[in-house]
Fold this sequence. Notes:
The chain is an alpha/beta fold.
Amino acid sequence: MLNIDLKGKRVFIAGIGDDHGFGWAIAKAFAEAGAEILVGTWAPILKIFKTSLANGKFDESRKLKNGKMMEFAKIYGMDAVFDKMEDVPQEIKENKRYAELSGYTVSEVAAQVAKDFGHIDILIHSLANAPEVTKNLLDTSRQGYLAAMSSSSYSFISLLAHFGPIMKEGGSTLSLTYIASERAIPGYGGGMSSAKAALESDTRTLAWEAGRKWNLRVNSISAGPLRSRAAKAIGMIDDMIAYSKANAPLVKELHAEEIGATAAFLSSSLASAITGVVLYVDNGMHAMGLAVDSQALRRKED
């Protein structure tokens, strides 16, 4: 029987801030497979996340199948919008949520990880943000659009550029995307659909570049809708989940654990020849071209 074995592997997961969502599920799947886990948490919530962890708020979610608790080797405060400290505006540096922090840009975190651990084997990008996500694309400002692109897609390029040199050959990198990259999803606005499209295009280009430069694999998971805190901010997650259940080939809700298991597989030696792929984990929703619950399909009563 084939087993996913990540013992001796070290993973850096960017984008965990609570015990909800795909980032946490991926961390847990990696822990189950024996990997050592480093976490990059959005700098302004670093203290809250660490306090919640220390106070046992996440203990139930941390339990592994063997009865042990998932542990993080180290948690880093990081803001992937900034590559180096010179990029950080003065008003951000002086903001009370940043004032007590240092070394939170991508280059600084990568350097600190190298100093603390020497290398990593796996890099996970679980980051997305669009300040105007509830706005239609036509109503999105240039600033809001570029902010979405910066934090949701370019951040992956930056992470790979800075962590790639400290990754072992044969390593794996992975990002998370959504079908709005290629299908119109009304309500998924603020430039997020554009950012996801860019992320998927970058996956293919980076697979070539990082593959030839560092012998790394680069893939992306296109996940179905999940009732995470981040998704709730969009304001339509329940409708998206209901739509998927009504129209996808598999009539069930998507579970975060299913994304975690897929991430573990793609990061393991079992997927050693897979790169440049956008893998759908969405109960088959991507395959559908017709909404079977549409009123347009209902015959008028005689």
